[in-house]
Design goal:
Elements (H helix, E strand, L loop, with lengths): L3 H8 L2 H10 L5 H7 L6 H27 L3 H23 L1 H25 L1
């Protein structure tokens, strides 16, 4: 089976090729990750990233005290917050993945719309 991008390129005229070139290729993971902080919802993603960072640092700090604890009560006092903060930081980080996948789907939908428009003509 041939590459789907080559099939799309064969079906397009010059104007549509220019439009598809403006859409561009799929950016890499790091570029997508930093792209989360722009656009209309960028501020919310920045707040989530800062909150995630604070929870992670707090969890590491509490874990440090947990491993230095001499008695079980002190270990429990530091261990539960450490585990809770680290798990919450991980869950908060997972919030960003669906946003990245949504952006990928939207990019592919644009490509599909160009292909369908070329088939109508």
């Amino acid at each position: 089976m041939r590459d789907i991008d080559a099939l799309i390129g064969d079906a397009l005229d010059q104007e549509e090729r220019d439009l598809l070139a403006r859409i561009g290729d799929e950016p890499g993971f790091v570029r997508q990750a930093f792209g989360l902080f722009g656009g209309p919802t960028g501020w919310a993603n920045i707040v989530l990233a800062v909150a995630q960072l604070v929870m992670f640092v707090g969890g590491i700090w509490a874990a440090w005290h947990f491993f230095e604890a001499a008695d079980p009560l002190t270990a429990l006092r530091w261990g539960l917050p450490a585990a809770t903060l680290l798990i919450m930081a991980m869950v908060t980080k997972m919030v960003f993945l669906p946003v990245m996948y949504t952006q990928q789907v939207m990019r592919e939908l644009k490509r599909f719309e160009v292909l369908m428009a070329s088939r109508k003509a």
